[in-house]
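Following up on my earlier thread - several people asked me to post the actual chain instead of describing it. Fair enough. Here it is, all 954 residues.
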Amino acid sequence: MDSSRHSLGPSRHALDSSRRLDETAGVVAILRGPDHEFEFVNDAWQRLFARDVLGKSAREALPEIQGQGFIEVLDTVYRSGERSLSQDISVGFMSSAGETTQQRLDLRLAPLFDGAGAVNGIFVQGSDGTAADRVREALLRSERRFRAAVEAIGFLWTNTADGLMHGSQPGWSELTGQTESEYSGLGWATAIHPEDSAATVAAWQAAVAERRTFVFQHRVRTVSGAWRSFSVRAVPVLEPQGTIAEWVGVHIDITERLAFEQHLQESESRFRNLSNHAPVIWVTRADGHCEHLNQRWLEFTGQTLEDAVGFGWLDAVHPDDAAAAEAAFRRANAERSAFHVEYRLRRSDGEYRWCIDAAAPRVSASGEALGYIGSVIDITDRKRVEAALAAEKRGLELIAKGAQLADVLNAIALEVEGQGGRGMRCSILVLDLDGERLRLGAAPSLPAAYNEAIDGLRIGPDVGSCGRAAYELTTVISPDLQTDPHWIQFRQLAAAHGLRACCSVPIVRGNGVLQGTIAIYFDVARPPSDHELELARSVSNLVGTVLERHRWDEHLRRSLEAEQSARSEAERSSRMKDEFLATLSHELRTPLSSILGWVALLRRQDDLPASVIQGVDVIERNARAQAQIIADLLDMSAIVSGHVTLDSRPVDMQALSRLAIDAVRPTAAAKKIILTFVAEPGESPALVFGDANRLRQVVLNLLSNAIKFTASGGNVELRVAYRPDQIEVRVSDSGEGISAEFLPFVFDRFRQADASTSRRHGGLGLGLSIVKRLVELHEGSVGVESPGRGKGASFFVRVPVAGARDSGYGVDTAPAAISMYGEDHDLTGLHVLLVDDDADGRLATQRLLERAGASVTAAESSAIAMTLFARQRFDVLVSDLGMPDADGYALMNWVRARAPGEGGQIPAVALTAYARQEDRIKAIAVGFQDHLTKPVEADRLLAAVARLGTRTLA
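Reply from S.P.:
Thanks for posting it. Predicted structure:
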């Protein structure tokens, strides 16, 4: 805030308040400047003169008062800075009707001051003589308001006629904390800053002696101890006879103003310093002609001022850029808008430098366009950095896109030549695998004969610039190849191809290992410029990055190829293993199917001797043991290879466990083992989310394992219990128990506690491992506890309970165990086409179906089956899958391709020794309704045929 506003603020406040004066207050006005321009008038003044006077001088607003002495009184007050009181004067005014009227007025004129103490206006208050008392009262009130307004920004104080402070000075006391006895006389000076005190007293005493206005600035210690800066002004109050009655002064706090002014000075200094160091400052006229350029322009371009003014500055702009630069300037000048443009400017040494020319329009206070002021900044270094970054980006993009190394290096070399001076050419040499020679990487502009000669350049101290740079791992500059001793063996070669100078930079990895060299050649004998040298060094870093990236890419490519080869080999091995297991399963299950098929037929004979029945039992028991071993092998293979797919839905573990324990009761009864099922109290049903068939397999494996290792007369308990967020199934037995040493390995594959040749229990040791893997697929856990050998064991499985997300499924318990011989199925009236290439298995299956009442037509191949199918109609198709020539899948595709009237929708069962999950999925996909694996339970086969033939009898 400047000083004029300090004085303006309180005056406006006091006079704005006078708008609310009643009619007795008279007329009030503020005039500013030596011409006495009206800044403010109150309503009474407006009514008296009935004209618009604001912003006009007294002579313009009231021309009729000239010559009546009023203007002269105003001039006197403005020059002297002293008040004037004129009573009962007669002034003629022009009324709104155009008539001159005489008005008798009492006028009070008081000077107004700015913060520096200079007069900048006059306060005028007048009233007619008949209302003098009321006017005086109004003036007193106005004076009090004015005093209050002054004190709002400072405080008033008084001194005696001889300049001594006396009496109560509340403003000074409140500011400094001094008492009356301390500040009386000249005691107030002790509160002035020591550096200002003596000067203040001297100036004050001089003003008192000379009876003139006192204006000063100094620092005062406040009651808080802080120093504040004040502007001080004091004037003498005169008696009518001209003697001084007293001095009245005001202190105005200007601390913030001074701080702001100092900030402005510092800002101005910074701007001046910036301007002095800016490359160019220029100024134009409104018509666009340049009228001023600072010394820096002349130094930079080498032009004289006479050459550059007007539009001569365009002569220093690159010919390719001049037209665009001029057009941009003229367009902005026409639109009166700010602009910036980039162009190349010729430096005094002849080199063109990239510059930004930016400017803003100049306007006068009235908004008139005066021209432009602008500056020019050299951005060549920035342009070069941008170009280097762009080149690096393009090089890396080429690598990322799989470009050949030679193409990438060639692009970089061309980029270098584009950024260099005329006649500059670039080559990139790459260290060979032996680390002894430099091979040509890229040299797009060098002659082919020269490139051929330097390809395979030996590294050494006297082998040109590149050989030496690679040898010494330092930059080598050869400003004249014909005189450089290191170029003796290459002088003729260089001269023949117009090469006169060279600069070579080694390309080095971050660890200091040489990768190659980059060289720039010139067609004149000269050293490289700083820019060219820096360009070569920066590009050497880029080429180093490219070569390192290429090296890693090659390493990665070889690693990927090796990994892909290993993966392909692993996948091939996995396929071979799967195919082997599938073939093994087929070859083992097929004869087992025949054996168990005939066992089932024998079981249905009512007149077999006891000795034969005993033999049938032995045959069946061993066949089933072999079938379980095969099933375990296939299950473990599928689990390990990740081929097990769960058909998950809510499963009632209590119901599933009951079915499982019912399935093993015959085996337990044969060993006289007591089976117990316990369901602990809890929510019913005990639901988990999983595959019912796989969970049933888990429970059956645990029960079978417990029965296997429990002696005759022992106990096996199956318990279902609730745990927090889990269902626990625990199988406990009173059998052989497990030693502490073997407990950690119970669930490992192919591990058995007794692996000796004298072991009492058979099997491969896969059952519990399968349990563990299946439970983990259900996000559950397994465990085992045993006090030791001969003390039994307890296996438990914990599976998460089904959540809200699983509520949309129906509850599953897994299919109930189908007895081997306990049910009869009436297949009378069904005509079955049986297809199987295994004669023994085909005959056993045929006899089993015929015994149930079916009419069976057997075929030993798909081709025969197709012939039979085309001749007659069948109710159910039972087919093997693995057959020579056309397999069961081909047969089913052929059947499903036929029209419904030609048997294309016949129900079909796949009866096969291929037992993998993927085999089942594939069979269902081609059109089979069911997939039964060999050896199949007789009743399961009959039940499937009866169901598909819609002739099942319980």
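Residues 1-24, 753-760, 814-822 have pLDDT under 50 and may be disordered. That should answer part of your original question.
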